[in-house]
Design brief:
Shape of chain B: globular
Helix content of chain A: under 10%
Shape of chain A: globular
Number of helices of chain A: 0
Number of helices of chain B: 0
Largest sheet of chain A: 5 strands, mixed
Strand content of chain B: over 45%
Oligomer: heterodimer
Order of helices and strands of chain B: EEEEEEEEEEE
Distance between the termini of chain A: 38 Å
Largest interface: A-B, 21 and 26 residues
Strand content of chain A: over 45%
Radius of gyration of chain A: 13 Å
Order of helices and strands of chain A: EEEEEEEEE
Structural class of chain B: mainly beta
Number of strands of chain B: 11
Distance between the termini of chain B: 37 Å
Number of strands of chain A: 9
Chain lengths: ~110, ~120
């Protein structure tokens, strides 16, 4: 299984953009890049996913490097409710949606 | 739309006792997952169902853990007998398969404490 590397923690100020990096140098051509987040005392929550092109949805944007060896999750305006652990996960297309969670990045947001 | 429902939310038992967790997935989701999350770690997949068939149970400790998904809807995960090391949060998730994305929806989890 291809692995991802994320910083253990990051800090952000409220209402400022946040860029959460993820390295996945061993990604294969059929691995999707998924991001989930987990708020305290809750189950993980899907944020966004992509394969090759950048993606936008109501929660965030996903910027994928041209060689696909890294990606960045972008929260355009952080709020206090965005404080969570963010997981970057590679999902192989034919493994039935198997998610292998790493340690993730714990994001704290200061008012 | 109702989310993934799990019960109970909290359970405290003594070691060697049995325990069961129940999960009702989102209506229409044919894929169901059970994960275990130890304190400070990311969730770890225990078993995956496609409808009523367990298609990946390679990470399930089969000596004491069992699971079933009768009729391909709700599911039960059981531990018998429980050990101290089983203390964790047990998460259920479900998904459908729009374009191979396998976006998963998680329940709130059951926090198990074994004393």
């Amino acid at each position: 299984d291809a692995k991802t590397t994320q910083p253990n923690s990051m800090e952000s100020n409220e209402e400022e953009p946040v860029h959460l990096p993820c390295n996945h140098s061993t990604i294969s051509g059929t691995d999707y890049i998924h991001w989930y987040r987990q708020l305290p005392s809750q189950g993980p929550e899907y944020v966004i996913h992509g394969l090759t092109s950048n993606v936008n949805n109501r929660m965030a944007s996903l910027a994928i490097a041209e060689d696909r060896k890294s990606s960045t999750l972008i929260l355009h305006r952080a709020t206090l409710r965005d404080a969570a652990v963010y997981y970057c996960i590679l999902m192989h297309y034919n493994q039935g949606g198997k998610l292998i969670f790493g340690q993730g990045t714990e994001l704290s947001v200061k008012p | 739309e109702a989310g993934v429902v799990q019960s109970p939310r909290y359970k405290i038992i003594e070691k060697k006792q049995p325990v069961a967790f129940w999960c009702n997935p989102i209506s229409g989701h044919n894929t169901l997952y059970w994960y275990r999350q130890n304190l400070g770690q990311g969730p770890e997949l225990l078993i995956r169902y496609e409808n009523e068939e367990a298609v990946d149970d390679s990470q399930l400790p089969k000596d004491r853990f069992s699971a079933e998904r009768l009729k391909g809807v709700d599911s039960t995960l059981k531990i018998q007998p429980a050990e101290l090391g089983d203390s964790a949060v047990y998460l259920c998730a479900s998904s459908t398969n729009p374009g191979n994305s396998y976006e998963q929806y998680f329940g709130p989890g059951t926090r198990l404490t074994v004393t």
